[in-house]
Amino acid sequence: MAKWGEGDPRWIVEERPDATNVNNWHWTEKNATPWSKDKLKALLDGFVIADAGLECTVTKIDKLDGEATANNRKGKLIFFYEWNIVLLWKGRYNDEEVTGKVTIPNLSEENDVDEVELTVSLDSSNPAAERMKQFMYNVGRDKLRKQLDTYIRQLKADFAKGLILPKKDELNGTETAPQKSDKETVFASGFNKKKIDLQTITSATEPTKQVGGCKLDLTTIKMTEMFQCRANELFDALTREDMVTAFTRGHVKHELFKGGDFVYFGGNISGKFVEIVQNKKIVDHTVLKLTQTMVPKAESEKITQNWKCYYWNSIRTAFGFGSFLG
Questions:
Q1: Does domain 218-319 have CATH number 3.30.530.20?
Q2: Residue range 28-159 in CATH 3.15.10.20
Q3: Nearest Cα to 286, choosing from 245, 242, 322, 239?
Q4: How many Å apart are CA 111 and CA 119, to the nearest integer?
Q5: Residue 64: pLDDT over 90
């Protein structure tokens, strides 16, 4: 964990006139599920697939289960979405009506849209049905993937707005800053690349730092979490790349040795391993104690909740470690 004054610019919190989410430092989240359901229905329900004299129509969305969120962490946007979709379709060949289904079991951020699985099935089997099934497989899947790609692009464009706040130097003395284009907003890191010399202000109560003439109260977060598992199992969940990938739902980097780097959430969380003591004690229940120092006091409650949501609860859900029952 980087500390104040040690030169990691990603952890420098700057002064903002509105005192809101300075430097886009903490995790903010928007629920994109209702919007996504409406958008997917608009893109898929009634969608016509036509080519070379053949035509099929999506007659109904039989299943639309899942969720989507848009998150801002340190000026970067992270989108989580996972959908299980079943579409009913019909077509006609040689005056025979053919009906069937297209199943999309896992539309998520983990796969490129070209890799999303679409399975075509028929309600009955005959020469006309088999011909339309081949049409849906060879032509229909590509056209449906384009509709799914439209959903993903519009999700990122619409939910990028308002999640990245302008910095002080972008305000130019006004109350609002010009909005960046959607593409810039989605992919810009938002990290403050300029190093700032920090002066320590001693205090008898909470430590304080001064940044750009603004005093910032700091605090320490201490948490104790209990898991229904053995110590080696929790150790693996926090250190094995495949297990960390499972609960963070994204690519991770691990160099599991003293001084080694780790990277989570597409580079939004990174640091170094200071000390590693493997499987020191094994019991039926495992107690994890966390201490995070030099935290802006105004952000401590939000950060505490994010630890619980994106780490502890996610680990329990992913691996079935449950909660301590006493």
A1: yes
A2: yes
A3: 322
A4: 16
A5: yes
